[in-house]
Write a structure and sequence with these properties.
two-stranded antiparallel sheet; 253 residues; binds NADPH dihydro-nicotinamide-adenine-dinucleotide phosphate
Length: 253
């Protein structure tokens, strides 16, 4: 099998897995964090889990970039920097910011995320730096690039800001949960997920690629059911939970 065949098979696999994940997670929340429960085998602490899960997304796209240096231009460099800004944060900074004794992750889940991040790093890197490169310099002035970059950076800001609000709720270094009251939490229960989805929709637009679109689609399939489960959990756990707050999409859902 050559790389092009592997690329097409991986695109289809990500698409079909996304549909499966969407259907399953609405009924069975992934067993980590507030939905941790026994019966999922061996587990690893959350900090180590995040590093292992996200490392392939950081490394594989970088490898793809380095293997195609002869085709690389300024647009490719900017796209790589934006992708890696997210993954440096998620792989190395976010785990270090987690407070207190974090809940552990089942190794099965870590393995699934590791495989997905490898596949996703591969399809995005291969399309950007091997199949499509180089973008014309005029792409920087294209409305798709500009709007996509605005969405990406806004989504990343909302995501990181919301992650910080949550970690600050754990000042006492316990595993307790509170009602977050700042920032986009005033509008939705899971603004970190909203930011993440916005970010990858921006990426899809900015790269104008099927690989980017599938990543945005998969992120939605993965995070929308969890946002719904979080929303129901907050309402059940805290009788004083703000009634106007939505689950994921401000003012809508
Ligand atoms: P959560 O919001 O469930 O949890 C984030 C952290 O905050 C955890 O340490 C959690 O502790 C803690 N926490 C959550 N709610 C509260 C609360 N009410 N009070 C106090 N502490 C709280 O996010 P995830 O762990 O699911 O995801 C983390 C990040 O990773 C997010 O930014 C998300 O967007 C991103 N992500 C992206 C995915 C993708 O498909 N691209 C997939 C999954 C995550 P505890 O662990 O004890 O619950």
């Amino acid at each position: 099998m050559d790389l092009m065949q592997l690329y097409h098979i991986t695109l289809w696999t990500v698409f079909l897995t996304g549909i499966g994940v969407l259907a399953i997670l609405f009924f069975i929340p992934a067993p980590y964090g507030r939905f941790s429960r026994p019966g999922w085998g061996l587990r690893l602490d959350a900090r180590t889990a995040w590093i292992i899960m996200e490392l392939p997304a950081f490394g594989i796209i970088l490898a793809s970039f380095l293997l195609n240096l002869d085709k690389i231009g300024p647009v490719e460099i900017v796209l790589l920097l934006l992708w890696e800004a997210h993954y440096v944060y998620r792989t190395f900074v976010y785990p270090a910011l987690l407070r207190g004794s974090t809940r552990s992750f089942p190794i099965l889940l870590i393995l699934f995320a590791w495989v997905f991040n490898s596949a996703n790093g591969f399809i995005n890197g291969h399309w950007l730096f091997s199949i499509h490169a180089p973008f014309a310099l005029s792409w920087f002035a294209d409305p798709r690039f500009i709007l996509g970059a605005v969405m990406f950076l806004s989504g990343m800001t909302i995501n990181i800001w919301s992650d910080r609000i949550l970690t600050r709720l754990r000042k006492d270094n316990t595993r307790s949960y509170g009602i977050p009251q700042e920032g986009f939490f005033r509008l939705v229960s899971s603004p970190n997920y909203f930011g993440e989805i916005l970010e990858w929709c921006g990426w899809a637009l900015m790269t104008w690629s099927l690989a980017g679109l599938l990543f945005a689609f998969f992120t939605f399939c993965n995070l929308a059911p969890r946002a719904w489960a979080n929303f129901k959990w907050y309402r059940k756990t805290f009788p004083s939970y703000p009634v106007k707050r939505k689950a994921l999409i401000p003012f809508i859902w």
